Amino acid sequence: MEYNSGTCLRTFKGDLEQKIISLLKFNETTLISGSGDEGFALTIWNINSGQTLNNYKGHNGFVWSIIKISETTIASASDDGTIRIWSL
Q: Which of 28, 52, 40 minimizes the C-alpha distance to 78?
């Protein structure tokens, strides 16, 4: 495999001023990020447009891990000591 020059193709910047510390490719058109700032939110992104589709709040600490459970469900783990299951 040959690699290109490392040119940035798209920069994602959402509605929230967040420090992104975790990332999941949910499917071909969706990314989900977890934040490590005061918002402690999960953000759903459209890969093609770079736009924020939704924000999920509920954690009280950094969101370090996100996994896909099914086509409509994800789980997130935070340093607030919780794992949360989210319906998308």
A: 40
How far, in Å, CA of 81 to CA of 68, rounded? 19
pLDDT for 9-22, tens place per residue?
888 886 667 788 99
Q: Which two tokens stand for residue 88?
A: 């998308």
Q: Give the pLDDT confidence of 15-56 residue by residue, as tens digits.
A: 667 788 999 999 999 999 999 887 899 999 999 998 999 999
Tokens read off for 80: 């607030």
Task: Give the whole-angstrom CA distance, residue 35 versus residue 49.
Answer: 20
- Yes or no: say if 23 and 32 are a contact pair by the CB < 8 Å rule: yes
pTM of the model: 0.85
Whole-angstrom distance, CA of residue 11 vs CA of residue 1 = 24
Each domain of the chain, given as residue ranges in start order, spans 20-87
- Give CATH for domain 20-87: 2.40.10
